Amino acid sequence: MIKINNLFADLGDFSLEDITLEIQKGEYFVLLGPTGSGKTVLIECIAGLHSTGSGEIQINEKGATNLTPEEREVSYVPQDYAIFPFLNVKENIAFGMNIKNYSKDKIDKRLKEMTDLLGIENLFHRNPKTLSGGEEQRVAIARALAVKPKLLLLDEPLSALDSKTKQELWVELKKIHNELKVTTIHVTHNFEEAISLGDRIGVMNKGKIVQFGSPDEIFRKPKSKFVAEFVGADNLFKGVSEIEDGISKVIISGVSTGISAAAEKKGEVYASVRPEDIVLSKDMCKCYGDMNILKGHITDVLDKGILIKVVVDAGISLSVLLTRRAYFEKDLNKGDGVYVIFKAGDVHVF
Fold first, then answer.
1. Residue 232: is its pLDDT beyond 80?
2. Whole-angstrom Cα distance, residue 330 to residue 281?
3. pLDDT tens digits, residue range 40-94?
4. Looking at residues 160-173, what average pLDDT do you find?
5. Per-domain residue ranges for the chain?
6. Fewer CB atoms near the end CB (10 Å): N or C, the chain?
């Protein structure tokens, strides 16, 4: 549906560099990255709002690099929603259809479809200034979808909303996508949002896409220190890897035994293990040979609501996430001696 080859765009103080990207028809693709990484600039280039220095953009197998925004059959919802203050909600949603000279019957039919989908008929005669953030977002999406775009671009659509409204709209965006199957590119810096919505994720940094993959690949198999840190890899360690019996043994300062990883990488590496993949025990266990077992003591306990984060000094500082039930059943307390246990297969080396 979207094919971008070697795209370069220079905005003076910032540039996109060598962006190559393919997005399938009907895919929900998330661009994830910190503020200033180039996510918004990239979707504005796709929408035709920025000229590009070199490279090619194709939309629906049609060259779009030199097309005007209105020729691209793309709907763009900017971060501030851009609801027109001089029109009521119904007029806002119908705006694009009027520009495209839809008949009155077609506009009425499409308005009914959008209100059924988003549940906003009761807002039709409201002034945009009276809308809440969640209502504004629904109206902006309804306006964007009303013209049946080939591609929907969402720029940080949930960033200004409170946590409860965000959760509700994650569900709503997923429902809309499942029903309409419109190809969507969603920009965010929120990793939880990305894994909740994305079929695939592209991570951006400094004007480049540094990793593509499924949410699970990005989450569990980062390809660089930047990606690992950005997606919240608490347990990230630099070391030297040696190959022993077909697996990596990563020698890390503070861990005399090293850490075994189900990988074959040699030399200077980073090793990471997700906090939720670690088990804590007060007793030494008879584990399988592919298990890492480190002895340490609990230095901190942090209440995260439904989860408890336990920090253990085992020569290196390891964060462990436990359910509240597991934490209290194990009768763990700050200062307790514990064994930290995790599989070699859960250690990611890059």
1. no
2. 8
3. 999 999 999 988 889 999 999 899 999 999 899 899 999 888 999 999 999 999 9
4. 83
5. 2-229, 233-349
6. C
Return the CATH fold of 2-229.
Answer: Rossmann fold (3.40.50)
CATH class of 233-349: mainly beta
User: Order of strands, edge to edge, in the sheet holding 279-281?
Assistant: 279-281, 337-343, 291-303, 307-313, 317-323
- Give me the residue label for tokens 């890897």: 241
And the tokens for 238?
């630099």
| Contact (Cβ atoms closer than 8 angstroms) between residue 349 and residue 269 | yes
- Residues pairing with 259 in the sheet: 250
Residue 283 CB: number of other CB atoms within 10 A?
6
- Contact between 23 and 57 under an 8 Å Cβ cutoff? The reply is no
Query: In whole angstroms, what is the distance from residue 208 CA to residue 203 CA?
Result: 8
pTM of the predicted model as reported, rounded to 2 decimal places:
0.83
| Tokens found for residue 159 | 């960033």
Under the phi-then-psi rule, with left for phi > 0, alpha for psi from -120 to 50, and beta for the rest, what region is 278?
A: beta
Distance CA 334, CA 157 (A): 41
For residue 291, list its beta bridge partners: 343
Question: What angle (nearest 5°) sits at the alpha carbon of residue 271, between those of residues 269 and 277?
Answer: 165
For residue 289, what pLDDT band results from cuts at 50, 70 and 90?
low
Helix, strand or coil, per DSSP, at residue 113: helix
Q: How far is CA 126 from the centre of its chain?
A: 33
What pLDDT digit, counting tens, does each position of 315-325 carry? Answer: 999 999 999 99
